[in-house]
Amino acid sequence: MQTILVAGAGKSSTYLIHYLLSIATRNKWKVIIMDENADAIAEKIRVNGYASAEPAVIDVTNIKQREPLVKRADIVISLMPPHLHIHLAKDCLRHKKNLITSSYISPEIREMQKDVKEAGLMFMCEMGLDPGIDHMTASQIIHSIQRVAASITSFKSYCGGLVAPESDDNPWHYKFSWNPRNIINAGKDGAKYLLNGKYVDVPYEKIFDHNKKIKVNELGPLAYYPNRDSLHYLESYDVPEVKNFMRATLRHPGFCKGWNALVALGLTDDKDHINDGSLTYAGWVKSKASYKNNSTLPEHVANKLNIPGDDKVLSMLQWLGLFEDKLVPSKTTSSADILLDLLLDKWQMKPEEKDMVVMQHEIEYIHKGKKIKTTSTMTLKGENKEHSAMAKTVGLPMGILAKMILTKKINPPKGVLIPNMPSVYRPLLTELNHHGISFTDEVE
Q1: Domain containing 289: what range?
Q2: pTM of the prediction?
Q3: Residue 420 lies inside a defined structural domain of this protein
Q4: What are phi and psi of 407, to 5 degrees?
Q5: For residues 127 and 408, is the Cβ–Cβ distance under 8 A?
Q6: From the CB of residue 28, how many other CB atoms can be counted at a distance below 10 Å?
Q7: Which of 291, 306, 333 is the last residue of a domain?
Q8: How far apart are the first and last CA of the chain?
């Protein structure tokens, strides 16, 4: 009997775990689900009473609890927070196990490249939605263009986890469908990309001021902001003649304007320590915005942001409760904590509500002297809060890859990798298409 170890039973694990357990019996697999939260594990397996599931309630940082599980596994899938992958990675190297994660390759895991390759192992990282499906679909398009000897001049890739239109009932046009802490920290490392042949470096304070738009069929305009260091992928994507190269995150235009205001007011700061137990939301905003008693707080904020007094951004901030004399929870100690606690309530999805994932690639190239633009778009709605589009698109690629390796449909490539090789993306994208994750292409 083969054994799969799934580390992490959080929001993004639902589809992955259900997919693996739905095919485990006929493949004679044991699926160990490891997490420190027993209720989270039980939630994932109790609905269908999967006989192939084995819960393991442990602290992933405890090597005595963790290592025996890795040793038992034939393959390890980690959905743990990114900084915890390294514990599993070291165990996998020591016990010769292949590893799959959906996270960006960390510097610590990147340093393992030589040892992982020499050990004949596959550490496949960035195997989720973004990063993940974006790498696979972009590489498929790029390789098909390169096969006809065309020169790629522009590559732009956009992706966003949004709320479905029928569940959109707040002025921010947003609800949490994945790790809320990641939303608070979005953009804090700034962004780098290539524009008209020049390197652009955008500091955090300017990220959400970008707010340029693309049009997605049937959804209208969506705003985007540059995502992390796009330049890091120039070599992986192998587009030497490209003049524009950007990976970006999609949001509704109003969201970007509102979030830009939160950043400008310092309300996403995770380094300050301002809550003494008697702080109100209005007091918090006053302390961060250098409030003077010569105007109302909304008027002061409008002046601080240099916006009209009737700007929609003010009503968005008011909807969050930022101008209320209501006590901030004493457990919150920084602005980022206060904001996260507030948004967990305001942006919570109800059980029956749906999220939506949108991904779009825009690639321009020259073929036989003619300029051509291809646009490839995927939109996918979730079924409900638990079976979300985000959980499906993050989890399924990892589950399918694990299945294809264990059933020997894919010979695992060696090293610390992202899924940009045809031997991986071709069969993966074919099966994802069977699960409704597909792209529509337009050529101009």
Answers
A1: 273-333
A2: 0.93
A3: yes
A4: -95, 5
A5: no
A6: 9
A7: 333
A8: 51
